[in-house]
């Protein structure tokens, strides 16, 4: 599985609508937190750890659009400067993964009126992760397969 948008360029965030994680197994979800602010709020980014050793990083741009690209787990994203002030941590509102992880059945990207991606839905057997871009990231897990259809 490759998250990227060009041959030989897996580090470049991929753009466009695609089923970019179908069939992958998510074995962990971690938030990237700015430590001086504590972990009481939402993370600045979310990294999905995959069973094959790869990871996927979801971040927000300054215009609150959502960016999806390859992660570098266990290294922090390059923009975490100084690195000593940032940390990975579990997001307390998310459940622990089941044994073997969550198998992704489909992904969706939801956009605004300008076609900019603002939300990603990662549908898994047993539930869905909903990641929303903004000033910080918002992430929730819903049991089952509820949720509105993706916009195009």
Automatic annotation (TrEMBL):
This is Uncharacterized protein. It comes from the Bacteria. The lineage of its organism: Bacteria, Bacillati, Actinomycetota, Actinomycetes, Kitasatosporales.
